[in-house]
Amino acid sequence: MKISFSTEDECFRQEVAGWLADHLCGEFEPLRFRGGPGDEHMFPEERKAWERTLAAGGWTCVGWAPEHGGRGLSISQQVIFHEEYARAGGPGRMGHIGEGLAGPTIAAFGNAEQQRKFLPGIVNGSEFWCQGYSEPGAGSDLANVKTRAVLDQASGTWRINGQKVWTSLAHESDWCFVIARTEPGSVGHHGLSFLLVPMAQTNITVRPIEQLTGTSEFNEVFFDDAETDASNIVGLPGEGWKIAMALLGFERGVSTLGQQMQFQNELNEIIAIAKANGAARDPILRQRLADAWGGLRIMRYNSLRMLSGAQDGALRKDAMIYKLFWSSWHANLGKLAMDVLGAEAELIEAAPYQLNRLQSLYLFTRSDTIYGGSNEIQRNIIAERALGMPKEPRVRA
Predict the structure, then answer these.
(1) Catalytic: 29?
(2) What domains lie within the chain, and their CATH numbers?
């Protein structure tokens, strides 16, 4: 595990910081520190414009291989980019799902035609993606997917029927990668396929889900004979589970370091408020602040450890603890923010009611231990796949 950087790396850090300082200004100044989790509904068009500016500067897909349009940066330089981006207040990436999930998966498992078709739009910031995994009865238990797809040989299209839920920014996306059951009668992780589906069609309905924060960045997505070309299947029919699991490995890539810098920004704000309002003099709150700082350091070192191996989508044992750790830590940070604010945490100035940043943080972090795999499921993954313990008995209707 590498926890220091070379002189060359530090020169690169200055290059990144300088470019961001020169461009996160003017029309993009209002985007600084905006658009992250719980705030993704803000400035969507402006953040899409920012993606195109990043692309023009060569700052999208920095870790991708040059043959796929990336810069082929080393792991240490990718870490630096993501950390400096968050440190500078770079807005939440509209292209995150494409760059971090869809793109690496297509690069690893897609054929040459698919790579030529889909990767350039991600690199140049012109096409945006959402994730079609969770369903009303298959959230953390992805193997329980009920959405079905049938290949219509006459028209050369897959016809998809079903419902996905908790689909972030589906209303802003051009494409969705969808796990669907393509083998009739199959159960569990058998008979699933990984399809790339255009969102701009009348047979797809996107309905917003209003959250505790009053915002609607998540959606329900309904597929009613939705269509995608027969060629838009990644891998072979029935290989969807293998590809879906590899994608979850890519999800735990270098962008996790950027996520942690966003956490650091939140913690810095809480510490500043604690010093200003006197909460830092409370020994219990001071200890909780110290524990939060220590937890963030542990998170960083574990991320650097899990990034030390091959970045091929394989979910290493040390990567299996990451979701459980960060989600629990972040949920506790939301509680800490409210306790530091004190009575102010319970107050909103006047209608129309607008939550302040930390109130929104607290409410949104209630979902951290649920979405992306609940803590209960994460503990099963750690026990069964990392530690080799017996599987939990499962009863299916």
Answers:
(1) no
(2) 7-94 (1.10.540), 129-237 (2.40.110.10), 252-386 (1.20.140.10)
